[in-house]
Amino acid sequence: MSKTINVTVWNEFRHEKSNDAVKALYPDGMHAVIAAGLEKSGNINCRLAALDDPEHGLTQEVIDSTDVMIWWGHCAHAEVDDEIVKRVQKRVLEGMGLIVLHSGHFAKIFKALLGTNCSLKWREVAEKERLWNLEPSHPITQGIGDYIELPNTEMYGERFDIPTPDKVIFISWFEGGEVFRSGCTFTRGHGKIFYFRPGHETYPIFHNPEIIKVITNAANWAAPTIIKEDICPNTQPLETLSEKNVDFGKAGVVQASEL
Question: 101 is in which domain, residue-wise?
Answer without folding.
Answer: 5-117+180-234
